[in-house]
Design a protein that fits this description.
Blueprint (H helix, E strand, L loop, with lengths): L1 E6 L3 H17 L4 E6 L59 H9 L8 H17 L6 E5 L3 E5 L6 E5 L6 E3 L1 E4 L10 H13 L2 E3 L17 E5 L3 H10 L6 E5 L2 E5 L6 E5 L27 H5 L5 E2 H24 L8 H9 L6 H10 L9 H5 L10 H19 L6 H22 L2 E2 L4 H10 L4 H12 L3 E5 L3 E5 L2 E5 L8 E3 L1 E4 L13 H8 L5 E2 L2 E2 L7 E3 L5 E7 L20 H26 L1
Parallel strand pairs: 1-2, 1-7, 2-3, 7-23, 8-19, 9-12, 9-19, 12-15, 13-14
Antiparallel strand pairs: 4-5, 5-6, 10-11, 16-17, 17-18, 20-21, 22-23
């Protein structure tokens, strides 16, 4: 029986198992022996495991979450549709009472808890296992893989923590998900400073895993970061410590428990991620990529510089999606027909005077035009005389953002959102080629800020926490200095205000690099030359995700998928009907694995 070991058993592995089952009738004859190695539960993995606070939620609506391929997915294997989270019938699943109650109350536009998503992922995983060829066996090892040995011509040995003998495999697939990283020199110095002065420092971490009990009630704590990790942090330190929200005259108020610290929060932008939209498109359905097409750029020789060759095309693609929705969904707010605007738009560079003139001619209200620089840095250039004045300003800004993302009059934002998803997939293809240069992380940050923010009610809660004094906003370009036995913090938004704090929290996920990884398996592979680092990522073949060794040679028996690889596709699940890159990649990897196993079986029979 052919043996496949998956290192990592989260939703990405579940998707690969489903693709193995879907493609096996065409490519492989016989059962498989599958080993799943992961200290976290198979199916849900680390991020989506059931055992976390029920207060933590997804930032996607139930109707926008699926694990199934659909007609939009361009792949060689068969498409096997299935229910989105919103369409899922959980009657056959073994669920606890709280999850069942939430599912009963959940609608298509609800933002479910991570425990609900965990249940959906576990159900999909079980279904994927059942789809494997008849006679297949699946073994789960709730531990870590620490080493893998074996040349491309021989079977691989996967060594597990706490086990003397290795698991012997024909193929190993690394689906490690989001990984921890060693402390950077900056964070190590902050940790040492905190220890020396009796302070508290929480480095970048997955919020559900961080020990927040070290943050005492009433302490002044600086928080760097205003993305999703910050939202989770606030949830756990406020409502998670017994505080409650109450609505009076349609205004949300926070009633403290007295156990909360005082959080002084800031970031580079100084504002939280944009709220998720709560409406659907009103105009024509989105088109596929038109201006930013990875294959067009890959057809040219040499390196592809992000700022020089890529960003202008992304901006034009995203703006096209925005204006398509504005023109077709809100024709009373424009002066030209969509056909005329689109025709003239196609011939212009995004950053050109002619493009600005076309926008001014066709879109009379400046607020209806798309300005990426203003979107990226919305409070740049603003300075306030007092912290209280800035609090009032930023609360108004957040309230306006929630109102905009809840009002379908602004559905053009959703048009831009859909185009950004398309652009992300195209950019992944460029990154996988190994020819993309100059992308320093700005793009991923902007993408997350614009399209991957929290549900609107989370920002409403943030406003209530701000009014209650539990959260205070620092502003843009926040700085922190370890001085005088405390952490000092301030920003360019309120230049005269300096906060003295006894705690510092880095509210962001660890930035994983291969050279700085804390994953024992990758450390071992890097030391032995079995893996190559490229821009901090594990280098893999752009076609089938085979692992490249230090010389750049693909290992015939090793595959790697996930955000830590050069062929990264961030999410293991997707919004339906978006031709998700991870689904396409899963299919390609599964087919490559099956084709290899089939060829090896033939060779063994001949021998």
């Amino acid at each position: 029986m052919s043996v496949v070991v998956f290192v990592g058993a989260g939703p990405r592995t579940s998707g690969l198992l489903e693709r193995l089952g879907a493609n096996a009738p065409e490519l492989f004859d016989g059962p498989l022996e599958v080993h799943l190695v992961d200290p976290f539960p198979a199916g849900s993995g680390r991020v989506w495991r059931h055992e976390q606070s029920p207060l933590l939620r997804m930032n996607s609506m139930a109707e926008d979450v699926t694990m199934f391929t659909d007609a939009s997915v361009v792949c060689d294997g068969p498409v096997r549709p299935g229910p989105s989270l919103a369409e899922w019938d959980p009657s056959t699943a073994d669920l606890d009472g709280d999850v069942l109650a939430e599912l009963a109350a959940m609608g298509p536009t609800s933002f479910p808890s991570r425990r609900v998503q965990s249940a959906y992922l576990k159900w999909f995983h079980d279904r994927a296992v059942e789809s494997l060829p008849a006679g297949s066996a699946v073994h789960v090892h709730p531990t870590r893989a620490v080493r893998v040995t074996g040349c491309p011509q021989t079977r691989q040995r996967v060594w597990l923590a706490g086990r003397a003998e290795p698991v012997v495999a024909d193929v190993v697939v690394f689906a490690l998900g989001h990984l921890d990283t060693a402390l950077s020199p900056e964070h190590a110095a902050l940790r040492d400073y905190a220890e020396d002065h009796g302070l508290v420092f929480v480095p970048p971490a997955y919020t559900a895993d961080a020990d927040l009990s070290v943050l005492p009630a009433g302490a002044d704590v600086v928080v760097r970061g205003m993305g999703l990790a910050f939202i989770d942090l606030v949830v756990l330190l406020a409502e998670g410590r017994g505080g409650t929200f109450v609505r009076v005259d349609d205004v949300l108020h926070y009633v403290p428990s007295g156990r909360e610290p005082r959080l002084h929060v800031g970031s580079r932008r100084g504002v939280p991620y944009h709220s998720k939209t709560g409406y659907r498109l009103r105009g024509d359905a989105p088109e596929g990529p038109r201006f930013f097409v990875a294959s067009d750029l890959l057809a040219r020789p040499g390196e592809i510089d992000f700022r020089l060759h890529v960003w202008q095309l992304i901006a034009k693609e995203v703006a096209y999606g925005y204006y398509r929705e504005l023109f077709t969904g809100h024709p009373s707010r424009v002066r030209l027909s969509w056909a005329e605007f689109a025709d003239r738009y196609a011939g212009l560079d995004w950053y050109s005077r002619d493009m600005r003139a076309l926008e001014a001619e066709a879109v009379p209200a400046y607020s209806d035009r798309l300005d990426f620089e203003q979107l990226d840095r919305p409070i740049d250039g603003l300075a306030f005389d007092s912290s209280d004045g800035f609090q009032e300003f930023l609360r108004s800004y957040i309230a306006a953002d929630v109102a905009r993302r809840s009002d379908s009059a602004f559905s053009a934002d959703l048009g831009a959102f859909m185009a950004l998803l398309t652009a992300y997939g195209q950019l992944s293809a460029l990154a996988a080629s190994g020819r993309l240069t100059g992308e320093d992380g700005w793009w991923h940050g902007f993408f997350s800020y614009f399209v991957s923010g929290p549900p609107p009610d989370r920002l409403e809660e943030l406003l209530a926490l701000s009014r209650a004094g539990v959260v205070r906003f620092l502003g843009a370009d926040t700085w922190v200095e370890p001085v005088d036995g405390v952490f000092l913090a301030g920003s360019v938004s309120v230049p005269g205000t300096v906060v003295r704090a006894t705690g510092l929290v880095e509210a962001r996920l660890p930035t994983h690099t291969l050279s700085g990884t804390a994953e024992p398996l990758l450390c071992s592979m890097l030391a032995s030359g079995d893996v190559q680092e490229r821009s901090g990522l594990v280098a893999v073949d752009p076609v089938d995700s085979r692992v490249l060794d230090a010389s750049g040679t693909p290992h015939t028996r090793r595959f790697a998928v996930g955000p830590y690889t050069t062929n990264k596709a961030q999410a293991a699940f997707a919004r339906p009907n978006t031709n998700n890159p991870a689904f396409r990649q899963n299919d390609a990897v599964a087919r490559a694995v099956l084709a290899f196993l089939a060829a090896e079986a033939v060779d063994e029979s001949v021998a």
